[in-house]
Input
Amino acid sequence: MVTFLAGGTGTPKLLDGAARVWDPAETAVVANTGDDVELGGHLVCPDVDTVLFAGGGVLDRETWWGIEGDTTATHEELGRLADAAGLETGPRYLDDDAQTAGREIARWRRFSAVAEFMEIGDRDRAVHLTRTSLLDEGHTLTEAIRVLADAFDLDIDLLPMSDDPVATLIHTEGGETLHFQEYWVARRGEPPVADVEFRGAEDAEPTDAVRESLADPVVIGPSNPVTSLGPMLALPGFERALRETPVVAVSPFVGDEVFSGPAADLMEGTGREPSTAGVAAAYPFADAFVLDEADPTELGRHVERTDARIDDADDAERVARACERALTAVAGDAADAAPREGAE
Output
């Protein structure tokens, strides 16, 4: 058994090759839900759905978002109606009272669908409608995602990090508070970050299924340490569980150069060094790391080196095999350190 922690695109890309290394039926994926939003009453779970669509063979791999070949007629009509009515476009938060009313899982991340700022495809929207309706029927988020995973014939066990609401909020240097999706999708990573808040995390809990999965060896792909892993690590007991199981992490950096995405800006904005060394400092529970061959960083933990760039399934398999070697080495080190029978 092995468990992957997934957020953004880094870990989903790694999963493309992981199936050649670990049996998918023996693989769990815990997905970040801090990025989720409720858009026009429909719960959108971007990090969950990237894994869902990739595993189902329908992911748009050009954007790593949504369903390949999807139409956007509803999205386009929402924009046309807003323009025709002279309505203000851009992210439109519901008011403060509405943020904590109604469906609890959507707290602090409710947006109007007027001129929706995230492009949602028509088939993609059907997924969000199904998930939201299952929640309204009384199912947990874990149960709703299990239904969708069955519909997409996933071999892996896809788990949301929690059935409770956690919202990733970006505090900017100008004093604004933005949901992560507004910061990244609507604002394109602007303005500069002053801090990141995981609102609700202190009152949320990992699910029982997540706790069970964390008893197995864990792989953290080249995901963003702040907004992909941060919401998970903010959950009570999550990091403690990682300290008690073998963990290998793939750095999303080569030295101080990030492969892609906003990881460097977010790490710098939250007082972390934007580099592999900064990732290692953010993951004190990690027993081993997989680093790119060109990464000059020296760490005081086990390191496997390979070409860490992932552009296709063969690349992903190469990095996954480096993760496997790291976990094997860590397990061997633990066995060597354990008292032998008869030892005092």
DSSP finds 13 helices and 15 strands in the chain. The first helix runs from residue 10 to 18.
